[in-house]
Design brief:
By secondary structure, this protein is an alpha/beta fold. 38% of the residues lie in helices and 21% in strands. It has two domains: 2-66, Orthogonal Bundle (Helicase, Ruva Protein, domain 3), CATH 1.10.8.10; 79-285, Vaccinia Virus protein VP39 (Rossmann fold, 3-Layer(aba) Sandwich), CATH 3.40.50.150. The protein contains ten helices and eleven strands.
């Protein structure tokens, strides 16, 4: 038997030495995973790891020290009130995107059965969270990557089993999405790729080595896909419809400027995430 607290302490030191940003959190999360527990407080009820558990824990810690994302090791990530399956081939949802979803939920209060599309849906985090929290909404999710959409499909099936409304899934590019719904949508929301190719030196191995490139890179200024989402939104939204687009924390000025220059948008505003970083732009479609 291996004392759990000693194993977690040693794992924390090992992960810290490897440059992992949150070594104690990750060590505890891996211990929970190995033990089949869910809440961090559950670790207080366990004193020891048996031989099989200790070997599995050591193997997971070694992979995390090699900077394999924690969520690839545990196979899931929490996002708002739901749990999503993730792994190689799909972008791992980040906590900052939760504030993007919250803005959309607040803005749609009082809108009966809003019609919504999530462009560049990835794991389905945004669309499935909206379906969970806006049960009257009609949701579509679009992604151009078949590998990512396979993860969306798995997560959507699990959410239907949990009792959430079905989200309609579509394989395709943002700019060509849902031509049959032109001029009808209440909300276009997106967390598109927004890392500039000039930022290929991004230091986190979890990002550059494990998140799919199709979900990261977006031209020299990081706004190429934001431009495509804007073009799709002006086609899809009804007058007064809402656009919500996540962007890099370096785009707090350039993303709103893009919408202002495009014309047809009113109430253009940029917003910060929970950490106080510029994170997403919003606007209303107001054609002349």
């Amino acid at each position: 038997m291996t004392p759990l607290r000693a194993a977690v302490r040693e794992a924390t030191e090992r992960l810290a030495a490897a440059g992992v940003a949150s070594p104690e959190h990750d060590a505890r999360a891996l211990a929970l995973h190995v033990l089949g527990l869910r809440r961090p407080s559950d670790l207080l009820m366990v004193d020891d790891l048996d031989t099989r558990q200790a070997e599995a824990f050591d193997a997971f810690v070694a992979r995390r020290a090699d900077r394999v994302p924690l969520q690839h090791l545990t196979g899931s990530v929490g996002f708002r009130h739901i749990e999503l399956l993730v792994g190689p081939g799909v972008f791992v949802p980040r906590p900052e995107t939760e504030s993007v979803v919250q803005y959309a939920i607040d803005a749609l209060q009082g809108v009966p059965a809003p019609l919504i599309v999530d462009l560049c849906a990835g794991s389905g985090a945004i669309a499935l969270a909206l379906a969970n929290e806006l049960p009257g909404a009609v949701l579509h999710a679009v992604d151009r990557d078949p590998d990512a959409l396979a993860w969306t499909r798995r997560n959507a099936a699990l959410r239907v089993q949990a009792g959430d409304p079905e989200v309609q899934l579509h394989l395709g590019s943002a700019e060509d999405a849902l031509p049959g719904l032109d001029g009808t949508l209440d909300l276009v929301i997106s967390n598109p790729p927004y890392v500039a190719t000039t930022e290929a030196h991004v230091p986190e191995p979890e990002v550059v080595d494990h998140d799919p490139g199709i979900a990261l890179w977006a031209g020299e200024d990081g706004l190429d896909v934001v431009r495509l989402v804007e073009q799709a939104a002006r086609r899809l939204l009804k007058p007064g419809g809402l656009l919500v687009v996540e962007h890099s924390d370096r785009h707090g000025r350039t993303a709103p400027a893009l919408l202002e220059a495009a014309g047809g948008w009113s109430d253009v505003a940029d917003h910060q995430d929970h950490a106080g970083r510029d994170r997403y732009v919003t606007a209303r479609w107001s054609p002349a």
